[in-house]
# Entry
Amino acid sequence: MIFLKEHLRKSHYNWAIGLNHSSGNNEPDRRVFDRFNGFQVLFIINHFGKSLGKLTVTDGLKMEELISAQLPKEVKSELSVFNWLRGVYLYYSN
# Structure
């Protein structure tokens, strides 16, 4: 499944600035991650869900909450958010 804007619970996201991943790069990269950019949050949630092999609305909401409430300020790139999420999500899912 694809986690959509309609699934997000938080309402503080900026939707004015789109996400520009080229068709050749659909992977998290060193691009600066903005936790308030709804497109980037959706991108990370969906990419992480794909890496897990499954994604439910419950999974996506858990990731949204982790990003919103616990993402350290020093985690600045999409790649570092993905790696941080992998460690913290897997820790909380056990």
Notes: The chain has one domain: 5-15+30-93. The mean pLDDT is 89. The helical segments are 38-52, 57-70, 78-93.
